[in-house]
C-alpha cells in the first residue's frame, strides 16, 4: 500500500474542523489522490495559511500579504483609496 | 704886405705833424681795435643767436617728443584701462559661472538629501504602519475571519495552480 501524500499546512493558530474541510476540498482539486495534512503553528503569520506540497508553495498568509503591500507602497507610493 | 712870422709856420708844421702822427699811430690802431672788438661782439651775438635758435629748435623737438610721449602714455593708459576692464568682466563672468555651478551643485545635493530623507521617512512610516496593522489584525482575526481568509485566498491560489497544472499537462 502506497503512503498517502503529505501536505504541510502552517497557520498562526490551530485549524478548526471547518477550516480543515475547506482545505481538503480546495486542495483535492489539484492533488488528485488521498493526502494527509501535517499541521504546524507559526503565530508570526498573523492570519491565513501557508501550504507546502512537495516543491509547491502556496502562501496565503496575512504576513506575506502585508509584506507585499509594504513593498508596493515603497515602490509605487500609497495607493489611492476611492470613496465608498 | 703881410708878414708871416716864422714861428707860426713852425707851429703849423708841428701841428700838422702832430695830427699826422696822431692819426697814424693813435687813431688808426684805436679804430682798428674798435672795429675788431665790434666784429668780435657781432660774431658773439651771431653765435649766441645761433645757439638760441638751436636751443629753440631743441626745445620744440623736446616739446614735440614730450607731446608724443604724453599721447603714447595716454594711449597706453587707455589700452591698459580697456584690458583691465576686459579682465574685470572676465573675472566677474567667471565668478558668476562658478557661483551658478556651486548653486546648482547645492540644489542637486539638497534635492538628493531631501529625496533620501523622504524615502527614509516613507520607510519609517510604512514600517510603523505595518507594525500597527499586524497588531490590529492579530486582535481582529477571529476563527471566523481566519476561515474566510483561508476560503477566499486559497480559492484564488488553487484556481491559479489548477490553471498552471492544466497548462503543464496540456503542454
Automatic annotation (TrEMBL), chain A:
<dbReference type="InterPro" id="IPR000711">
    <property type="entry name" value="ATPase_OSCP/dsu"/>
</dbReference>
<keyword id="KW-0472">Membrane</keyword>
<dbReference type="Pfam" id="PF00213">
    <property type="entry name" value="OSCP"/>
</dbReference>
<protein>
    <recommendedName>
        <fullName>ATP synthase subunit delta</fullName>
    </recommendedName>
</protein>
<keyword id="KW-0813">Transport</keyword>
<dbReference type="GO" id="GO:0046933">
    <property type="term" value="F:proton-transporting ATP synthase activity, rotational mechanism"/>
</dbReference>
<keyword id="KW-0375">Hydrogen ion transport</keyword>
<dbReference type="GO" id="GO:0016020">
    <property type="term" value="C:membrane"/>
</dbReference>
<keyword id="KW-0406">Ion transport</keyword>
<keyword id="KW-0066">ATP synthesis</keyword>
From TrEMBL, chain B:
<dbReference type="InterPro" id="IPR005864">
    <property type="entry name" value="ATP_synth_F0_bsu_bac"/>
</dbReference>
<keyword id="KW-1133">Transmembrane helix</keyword>
<comment type="subunit">
    <text>F-type ATPases have 2 components, F(1) - the catalytic core - and F(0) - the membrane proton channel. F(1) has five subunits: alpha(3), beta(3), gamma(1), delta(1), epsilon(1). F(0) has four main subunits: a(1), b(2) and c(10-14). The alpha and beta chains form an alternating ring which encloses part of the gamma chain. F(1) is attached to F(0) by a central stalk formed by the gamma and epsilon chains, while a peripheral stalk is formed by the delta and b chains.</text>
</comment>
<comment type="similarity">
    <text>Belongs to the ATPase B chain family.</text>
</comment>
<feature type="transmembrane region" description="Helical">
    <location>
        <begin position="7"/>
        <end position="27"/>
    </location>
</feature>
<dbReference type="GO" id="GO:0045259">
    <property type="term" value="C:proton-transporting ATP synthase complex"/>
</dbReference>
<keyword id="KW-0472">Membrane</keyword>
<keyword id="KW-1003">Cell membrane</keyword>
<dbReference type="InterPro" id="IPR002146">
    <property type="entry name" value="ATP_synth_b/b'su_bac/chlpt"/>
</dbReference>
<keyword id="KW-0813">Transport</keyword>
<dbReference type="Pfam" id="PF00430">
    <property type="entry name" value="ATP-synt_B"/>
</dbReference>
<dbReference type="GO" id="GO:0012505">
    <property type="term" value="C:endomembrane system"/>
</dbReference>
<keyword id="KW-0406">Ion transport</keyword>
<keyword id="KW-0066">ATP synthesis</keyword>
<keyword id="KW-0175">Coiled coil</keyword>
<comment type="function">
    <text>Component of the F(0) channel, it forms part of the peripheral stalk, linking F(1) to F(0). The b'-subunit is a diverged and duplicated form of b found in plants and photosynthetic bacteria.</text>
</comment>
<dbReference type="GO" id="GO:0046961">
    <property type="term" value="F:proton-transporting ATPase activity, rotational mechanism"/>
</dbReference>
<protein>
    <recommendedName>
        <fullName>ATP synthase subunit b</fullName>
    </recommendedName>
</protein>
<dbReference type="InterPro" id="IPR050059">
    <property type="entry name" value="ATP_synthase_B_chain"/>
</dbReference>
<dbReference type="GO" id="GO:0046933">
    <property type="term" value="F:proton-transporting ATP synthase activity, rotational mechanism"/>
</dbReference>
<feature type="coiled-coil region">
    <location>
        <begin position="31"/>
        <end position="131"/>
    </location>
</feature>
<keyword id="KW-0375">Hydrogen ion transport</keyword>
Amino acid at each position: 500500500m502506497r503512503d498517502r501524500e503529505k501536505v504541510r499546512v502552517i497557520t498562526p493558530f490551530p485549524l478548526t474542523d471547518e477550516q480543515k474541510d475547506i482545505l481538503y476540498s480546495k486542495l483535492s482539486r489539484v492533488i488528485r489522490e488521498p493526502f494527509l495534512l501535517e499541521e504546524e503553528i507559526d503565530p508570526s503569520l498573523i492570519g491565513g495559511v501557508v501550504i507546502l506540497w512537495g516543491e509547491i508553495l502556496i502562501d496565503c498568509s496575512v504576513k506575506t500579504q502585508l509584506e507585499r503591500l509594504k513593498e508596493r507602497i515603497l515602490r509605487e507610493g500609497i495607493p489611492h483609496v476611492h470613496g465608498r | 704886405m703881410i708878414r708871416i712870422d716864422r714861428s707860426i709856420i713852425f707851429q703849423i708844421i708841428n701841428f700838422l705833424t702832430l695830427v699826422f702822427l696822431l692819426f697814424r699811430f693813435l687813431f688808426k690802431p684805436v679804430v682798428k681795435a674798435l672795429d675788431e672788438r665790434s666784429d668780435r661782439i657781432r660774431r658773439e651775438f651771431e653765435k649766441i643767436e645761433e645757439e638760441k635758435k638751436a636751443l629753440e629748435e631743441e626745445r620744440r623737438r623736446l616739446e614735440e617728443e614730450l607731446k608724443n610721449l604724453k599721447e603714447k602714455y595716454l594711449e597706453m593708459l587707455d589700452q591698459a584701462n580697456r584690458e583691465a576692464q576686459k579682465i574685470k568682466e572676465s573675472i566677474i563672468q567667471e565668478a558668476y559661472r562658478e557661483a551658478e555651478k556651486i548653486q546648482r551643485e547645492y540644489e542637486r545635493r539638497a534635492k538628493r538629501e531631501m529625496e533620501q530623507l523622504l524615502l527614509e521617512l516613507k520607510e519609517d512610516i510604512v514600517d510603523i504602519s505595518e507594525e500597527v496593522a499586524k497588531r490590529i489584525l492579530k486582535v481582529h482575526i477571529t476563527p471566523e475571519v481566519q476561515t474566510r481568509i483561508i476560503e477566499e485566498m486559497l480559492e484564488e491560489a488553487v484556481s491559479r495552480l489548477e490553471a498552471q497544472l492544466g497548462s503543464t499537462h496540456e503542454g
